[in-house]
Design goal:
Blueprint: H1 3-14, H2 52-64, H3 76-81, H4 89-101, H5 106-117, E1 122-126, E2 131-133, E3 140-146, H6 151-166, E4 171-177, H7 186-197, H8 202-211, H9 218-227, H10 232-239, H11 242-257, E5 265-268, E6 271-272, H12 281-295, E7 325-326, E8 330-334
Parallel strand pairs: 3-4
Antiparallel strand pairs: 1-8, 2-4, 2-7, 3-5, 5-6
Helix pairs in contact: 1-6, 2-4, 4-5, 6-12, 7-8, 7-10, 7-11
Length: 354
């Protein structure tokens, strides 16, 4: 599914009353003294589009912040100028440049830097038994907690699946359940997806639930199961089984341990994605994955060629689908900010509680 198709509704929802959980922008590491330099020129960083004030702000910050690599205790600017071996220095300078262009405050820029590059933000998250899409040994693992009645989750879901397709063989997507108490259909929908998982049809049910988010009554759920040709006796039994409840509760507990305050909650290779810092979710997520691959020494799959002709009016691209595989091992997770949970298809949900 094209990123472009989903950008207008995603950007609209992210712009109406969405609050985020601020990440820890502090650092226990000493920082170099503030530089009096007001002009910094770094190879690979084009500051020509900045105003003089923005250029001064960017120059001061790349001169103050230490490089992302613990074994390179110099400023980002010095790291880039001297071509130190820390591969994250240039991307860090470019990220701060982008944040300045978008009008972020100094605190927000520093927070974005730490969320993306601070090694202390990376944590390991077990993924065994969770439904997954993509190869289990992929260098990039995306972990998402979602609620089937959350409109933000519905809009973010195809973007994440698109990353699996865009970086074929390099990205694994892992889904975890977190039905919100404010959503009366969230729990039954999670149970239905779990019951479908037991019959190898998780992603098919996942798509039906999100595509029909305003139709999640019991009769609707049974109709989706019949459409997928599931064993209805087993399906109904699994809907109310203790094992199904335990699976969902396990995911919820795990999310709360890493500080979940709303859905969707997304991690990419150990770092929680602060959705408030994504000016263009589709492009920014693709850029995040591409950079992560490069930092790992991997060559990102080339982007598919753009079609010569635009699609006909009214045409759509079907949602991605994949056969779930039993996940094993663990994937990193992190702790940073994300948008608030949503309470219904048309309105943002209650703000997340600390």
């Amino acid at each position: 599914m094209s990123f472009l198709r989903w950008m207008p509704p995603v950007l609209a929802l992210l712009s109406i009353g969405v609050t985020g959980c601020p990440g820890n922008s502090g650092s226990s590491e000493p920082k170099p003294a503030t530089s009096t330099e007001v002009s910094v020129s770094l190879p690979g960083v084009d500051t020509s589009s900045l105003t003089p004030r923005e250029r001064r702000e960017w120059a001061a910050q790349v001169s103050e912040l230490l490089s992302p690599c613990p074994d390179t205790p110099v400023s980002i600017a010095q790291c880039v100028k001297e071509q130190r071996p820390c591969k994250a220095c240039l991307p860090a300078a470019q990220l701060l440049l982008k944040q300045v262009k978008e009008g972020r405050s100094k605190k927000e820029r520093e927070e974005a830097f730490h969320v993306r590059f601070d090694a202390n933000k990376v944590r390991t998250l077990a993924t065994d038994g969770s439904p997954e899409m993509g190869p289990p040994d992929a260098p990039i693992t995306i972990v998402e907690w979602a609620d089937f009645e959350c409109p933000f989750c519905r809009l973010m879901s195809p973007l994440l699946e698109e990353l699996v397709k865009r970086f074929d063989g390099q990205v694994r997507l892992v889904f975890k359940f977190y039905p919100l108490a404010a959503h009366v259909h969230g729990e039954p929908a999670a149970r239905a997806a779990t019951a479908a998982l037991n019959q190898g049809k998780f992603w098919e049910m996942h798509h039906l639930l999100f595509e029909n988010q305003d139709k999640l009554e019991q009769a609707d759920i049974e109709r989706y199961a019949q459409r997928l040709k599931l064993d209805m006796v087993k399906f109904r039994a699994d809907l109310v089984s203790p094992e199904t409840k335990a699976r969902i509760e396990k995911d919820k507990k795990q999310a709360e341990e890493v500080g979940l305050e709303g859905t969707p909650l997304i991690f990419i290779n150990g770092r929680e994605v602060d959705l408030q810092l994504l000016s263009n979710p589709g492009e920014d997520l693709e850029g995040w994955v591409k950079l992560e691959l490069e930092l790992l020494g991997k060559t990102p799959r080339p982007a598919p060629p753009k079609p010569a002709d635009a699609p006909a009016a009214g045409s759509t691209t079907p949602a991605a689908s994949a056969t779930p595989a039993a996940a094993s091992g663990s994937a990193p997770a992190g702790s940073a900010a994300r948008p608030a949970a949503s309470a219904g298809p048309a309105q943002p949900a209650q703000p997340r509680k600390p």
